[in-house]
Specification:
Layout (H helix, E strand, L loop, with lengths): L1 H32 L8 H5 L7 H10 L5 H5 L12 H16 L12 H24 L17 H30 L6 H13 L11 E2 L5 E2 L1 H29 L11 H26 L10 H23 L6 H18 L6 H17 L11
Helix pairs in contact: 1-5, 3-5, 3-13, 6-11, 6-12, 7-13, 8-13, 9-10, 10-11, 11-12
Bound molecules: iron/sulfur cluster (2 copies).
C-alpha cells in the first residue's frame, strides 16, 4: 500500500515538474519577445526574472487570470513550432498549486475530481438536512409556519452545524494560502501595496484587459462581460454574506429573531445578493460554454462549472425560500437551500472558490514587488 502511495506521489511530482517546466520554457520566450507586456500583471512581473524557479512559476500562474488575450496576440501560438500557450500552461500549474498547498494535504486530491466532489457533497448534504428536518421536528414539516425556519431546524442546531463547518473552511483556506505565501517569499506589505491590492481585487482590474476593453472569450474579440458577470457574482455573494451577518447581529445582540419582514435589512441585502448571484453565474456559465477551448485547461471545466452551478442553485433556492416562506412548501425549500449551501461550504477549500484567495495573494506580492527596485531593468517598470 505504501509502495503504491509513493508511486502515485512520484507520478504526480513528474506531472507537476513537467507543468512548471512548460511555464518556464514559455516565459523564456516571452521574456525575449515582451509583446504582451501591457496586457496584465504577469508580463511586467516576468521581466523582473531571468530564471523561473518553482516559486516564481507558482506566483506567475496565480497572477494570470486566464483572460486569453496573450494567446490571441501571440505570433508563436500553435501551430507555430514554439507552441506558446500562456493561459493553458498557467492554468495547469495553478491547479497543481491548489493541490500542493491544500490542507489537509490528502484533501487536495479533491481538486482532481472536483465536479464529482461537489455533486456528491451536495447530494449527501441534501439527504442529511431532509433526515434532520424529519427527525428533529417532523410534525412541523410541510406545515404553514409563517416563515419560521426554526420550527423545522432549531436555531442552535443550524448555528452549530454551519458554524463548525465554516470554522474548518476558514482554517483550511488560511493554512493553504499561508503555505503559498511562504513559498513565494513576498517581503513586507506596505500600506500602499495593501491598498493597491484591495483596489485591484474589488475592481477586478485585470479582467478589464490591458486597455480597458476586457477579455477574450469565444474568439479574438474583446469583451467586458466576463468582468461584469464576475462583479455580479462577487458582490452578490458578499451581499448574501452581509445579510447573514446582519441577521446574526439581530439575533444575538438585538434579540430580534427571524422571520424578518420583507423591508428589513437582512431580507433586502439577501434579496439583492440573491439576484446578483443569479445574474452573475448565469452569465459566467454562458461565457464558459462559449469559451475558446484553447484558453486554459479543459480538464478544469467540470470544477469551474460545478462551482458556478452551485452558486446559481443556492441563489435560486434562497429566492424560492423567500417567495414560499408563508406556504406549505417552506420546509422543502429550506432543506434544498441548506443542502446547497452546505455543499458549497464543504467544497470551498478544495474547489474553484480557492482561485480568488490565491489570486489575491499573488496580486499582493505583485504590489509589493512593484515597489522594489527592478535590478534587471529588462521591462518597463
Ligand atoms: S505570449 Fe507570445 S506574443 Fe506574448 S510575449 Fe509571449 S511570445 Fe510574445
Ligand atoms: S491569459 Fe491574460 S492574464 Fe494570463 S498571462 Fe495571458 S494576458 Fe495575462
Amino acid at each position: 500500500m505504501q509502495k503504491l502511495e509513493s508511486l502515485i506521489q512520484e507520478a504526480s511530482d513528474l506531472t507537476n515538474a513537467a507543468a512548471e517546466q512548460e511555464v518556464a520554457r514559455i516565459m523564456q520566450i516571452c521574456n525575449a519577445c515582451r509583446y504582451c507586456e501591457g496586457f496584465c500583471a504577469v508580463f511586467p512581473a516576468m521581466t523582473r526574472r531571468i530564471d523561473f524557479a518553482s516559486a516564481d512559476v507558482h506566483y506567475l500562474a496565480n497572477l494570470c487570470h486566464n483572460c486569453g488575450a496573450c494567446l490571441h496576440a501571440c505570433q508563436y501560438a500553435p501551430p507555430h513550432d514554439f507552441a506558446v500557450n500562456v493561459p493553458l500552461a498557467m492554468a495547469r500549474v495553478r491547479k497543481e498549486t491548489y493541490i500542493q498547498y491544500a490542507w489537509p494535504k490528502m484533501m487536495g486530491e479533491l481538486y482532481k475530481i472536483n465536479g464529482v466532489a461537489v455533486a456528491l457533497s451536495t447530494s449527501v448534504s441534501l439527504m442529511i438536512f431532509l433526515f434532520l428536518a424529519l427527525a428533529l421536528n417532523g410534525r412541523y414539516f410541510g406545515g404553514v409556519l409563517d416563515g419560521n425556519f426554526y420550527a423545522v431546524f432549531p436555531h442552535n442546531t443550524l448555528a452549530l452545524i454551519f458554524g463548525s463547518v465554516f470554522a474548518f473552511v476558514i482554517l483550511a483556506i488560511a493554512i493553504g494560502v499561508t503555505r503559498f505565501w511562504q513559498e513565494i517569499s513576498p517581503g513586507k506589505a506596505s500600506a500602499g501595496a495593501a491598498t493597491e491590492t484591495a483596489h485591484d481585487v474589488l475592481s477586478m482590474k485585470y479582467l478589464g484587459g490591458g486597455h480597458g476593453e476586457g477579455c477574450n472569450n469565444a474568439d479574438d474579440a474583446f469583451s467586458l462581460w466576463r468582468k461584469r458577470f464576475h462583479h455580479f457574482t462577487f458582490y452578490g455573494f458578499m451581499l448574501c454574506f452581509a445579510a447573514t451577518s446582519v441577521a446574526t447581529i439581530y439575533h444575538y445582540f438585538l434579540d430580534l429573531h427571524a422571520p424578518y419582514a420583507l423591508n428589513s435589512l437582512p431580507v433586502i441585502l439577501g434579496t439583492l445578493g440573491g439576484v446578483g448571484l443569479v445574474i452573475g453565474p448565469v452569465g459566467l456559465l454562458y461565457l464558459n460554454l462559449q469559451r475558446d477551448p484553447a484558453h486554459g485547461d479543459q480538464s478544469q471545466k467540470p470544477m469551474d462549472r460545478a462551482f458556478i452551478l452551485l452558486l446559481l442553485l443556492i441563489s435560486i433556492s434562497g429566492l424560492g425560500l423567500l417567495a414560499y416562506r408563508n406556504t406549505v412548501f417552506m420546509s422543502i425549500w429550506l432543506v434544498i437551500h441548506l443542502g446547497f449551501v452546505m455543499g458549497l461550504f464543504l467544497t470551498m477549500p478544495y474547489g474553484k472558490f480557492a482561485h480568488g484567495i490565491y489570486r489575491t495573494a499573488a496580486l499582493l506580492k505583485n504590489a509589493i514587488e512593484k515597489r522594489q527596485k527592478n535590478t534587471l531593468q529588462l521591462g518597463s517598470d
